[in-house]
Amino acid sequence: MSCRKVVLLGATGSIGRNVCRLAKDMPERLRVVAMSGFRNIDRLAAEANELKPEALAVPDVEAEAELRSKLTYAPAKIFSGAMALEDLARWDDADTVLVAIVGTGGLKPTLAAIQAGRNIALASKEVLVVAGELVMAEARRCGVRILPVDSEHNAIFQCLEGRNTSEVRRLILTASGGPFRAWPEEKLRAVTREEALHHPTWRMGEKITIDSATLFNKGLEMIEARWLFDVDIARIDVVIHPQSIVHSMVEFVDGSVLAQMSHSDMRFPIQYALTWPERIEGTLPPLEWGKLGRLDFEEPRYDVFPALDLARQAAERGGAAPAVLNAANEVAVAEFLAGRIAFPRIWEIVAAVLESVPDSSGTDLESLLSADRAARDRARAEAKS
Ligand code: NAD
Ligand code: MG
Fold first, then answer.
1. Is 79 helix (H, G, I), strand (E, B) or coil?
2. How far apart are CA 144 and CA 372, in angstroms?
3. Closest ligand to 222 CA?
4. CA max distance for the chain
5. Which stretches of the chain drop beneath a pLDDT of 50?
6. Cα–Cα distances in angstroms (integers) from residue 364 to residues 127, 133, 151, 360, in the given order
7. What is the pLDDT of residue 202?
8. Ligand 1 pocket: which of 204, 207, 265, 333 to mutate (most atoms <8 Å of CB)?
């Protein structure tokens, strides 16, 4: 029985706090040896004081003194400044880096961890949407694993275990459909921030909760699956499953389908990613079949929620198009959360930016990041118009 030593990037977020909770529940199997935070220094200090990681990181140099003043133990190292997350990602005494930073900020630390030979437990889907080809190639070159934490991809990973993807006909991602699954289209323009932040089945950070309401979350996940499992986007489908019990499915060439199920609690996929290839008993509750009632499946409303088609188009175009889609979406979500645009403007902005930012053939990091910057500028301008 081995103890996984984990660097946790994004310890103060929704995923990060679930990782900390698991580390407290199974200290013999999971140790957080290093962790990072961002703006919520109180939260970072509270988790650190309990788990006592050897190293900490905060990108803001000024936050370092505040963090030190709130610690009740002396960590071996506190990194701060622009390179803090990359430095932490290379922390020596670790075997796995769990990336749970929202948005594109996780990309460079992920690459740093891969190059330092660490396995990656990946929650930040944006990393693979922006630079999937590059990240997967770098992982192969460095001989490290990318273990999916996103529940759908973790489900597919479990269903595929030991199988060759040549035996796969389709990957079927399940989506809850979000809070507006059954709403009439004409009501969507009046959606409030609070309504959009009220997810029916999952409690998550704000950005991914809005992405779940627009279905961009599922669009990003289609692209994430394309790279994680090396399956062409044409063979990746989405089905709406409002109960969020079936976390995704694999249809094999013989027509058989394997599905993975559990409660909608992110500790299930996190625990599997961090104990893989073993399964351990842990403290997570089993499904009570008699109380489940029913499991429903339905087609997405592609016409009302264009995010799925936009993501598919971006994946088909390839190059920097997925990075452009992702960047425009990040800006549009921030604008919606700030109360400056109406809800449907999110996909209208993404569609406009995808159309106006030229295809770049370069998929090296610099070309992708420059496409990302151009898309953000364009999306900000679009939001003002
Ligand atoms: P969150 O907003 O709750 O937390 C984000 C974390 O990132 C925080 O720890 C914050 O400190 C850190 N962070 C944010 N901006 C940063 C920056 N510029 N520099 C350094 N750190 C920064 O987000 P979350 O819901 O935990 O999601 C994290 C990632 O995991 C996202 O990519 C999301 O898509 C993915 N994910 C989340 C869930 C979920 O249940 N929450 C499920 C699947 C996938
Ligand atoms: Mg998911």
1. strand
2. 26
3. 2
4. 61
5. none
6. 14, 9, 28, 10
7. 87
8. 204
Separation CA 122–CA 132 (nearest Å): 12
Residue nearest to atom 25 of ligand 1 (CA): 205
Structure-block tokens of residue 31 = 């140790």
pLDDT (0 to 100) of residue 2: 86
- Which residue's structure tokens are 């509750």? 285
Ligand 1 mutation pick, 18, 80, 101, max ligand atoms within 8 A of CB: 101
Phi-psi region of 158 (alpha: psi -120 to 50; beta: other; left: phi over 0): alpha
* Strand residue runs (E) in the chain: 4-9, 30-36, 55-58, 77-80, 96-99, 119-122, 146-148, 168-175, 236-240, 246-252, 257-261
Burial class of 264 by CB neighbour count within 10 A (0 to 12, 13 to 18, 19+):
middle
Q: How far apart are CA 147 and CA 189, in angstroms?
A: 38
Of the candidates 359, 366, 364, the one whose C-alpha atom is nearest the C-alpha of residue 321 is 359
Please answer whether residues 269 and 152 qualify as being in contact, where contact means their C-beta atoms are separated by less than 8 angstroms.
Answer: no
pTM for this one? 0.98
DSSP 99-154: E--SGGGGHHHHHHHHHTT-EEEE--HHHHHHHHHHHHHHHHHHT--EEE-SHHHH
